[in-house]
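Researcher: Good morning. I'm working through a list of sequences from a screen, and I'd like to move beyond sequence-only analysis. For each chain I'm collecting a predicted structure so we can compare shapes side by side. This is the next one on the list. No need for commentary yet; just the structure.
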Amino acid sequence: MENKGLTIGHLFPDLLNMYGDKGNILALRNRLLWRGFSAEVIAFEKEEPIPFDKLDIVLLGGGDEKAQLLAGQRLQGQRKELLDYIEKGGVMLALCGGYEMLGRTVSQENETAMGLNILDICAEAGANRFIGNVVIQSAVTGEDTKIVGFENHSGRMNIGNYKPFGKVILGHGNNGEDGNCGVVYKNLIGTYLHGPLLPKNPHLTDYLLGQAFLQKYGEPVSLTPLADVAEKEAYDYAVNRFING
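Model: Good morning. Structure tokens for this chain:
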């Protein structure tokens, strides 16, 4: 019997790990290992070429403005490979600055910089920062569920006609005006939510794993339910605390 597994690419952890993105990697890796699947995690530093066609999940995190600019400049050299990966259904989670990088512009203090233009979305600098806990309602996983996270951004994202990741129940989301949070395009999810995001939301982690298995093997792979006692307690506590005070 084939030992199924996934290869996870962590882009530029030397530059983009301000918001605990290693926790997201560990959530993906551990939920594979706990079920008996193999899990390979490859961290790509800023000077290393990235073989996107060999990766099953890609994580692009956030960092300070200088780090985000350096990461964006590095990815410009592999823009076509990244675009091909996304267009072919590659699974990707882009958080905060990584989310902005995929658009036409990236918000910087008092100015904007050019993005990768992978998606026709636009982030502009705002006058103040949106900071705090966030709860959204999202149907991305196939069920209408709540997702919890934390936001800390001055960017104001406009996603145009793309599908949002979810609708804001608590917090600001993309821009504090339209009620949207994040963006979904094929198997790409971009969002300002971090904290890290995946350990707080095991249902979202399993969704990403399931999509990656489907993309890699051409058929669904059964993900044995996990007890998730601590995860569910933390999730329920966060939802109840954030919404009900």
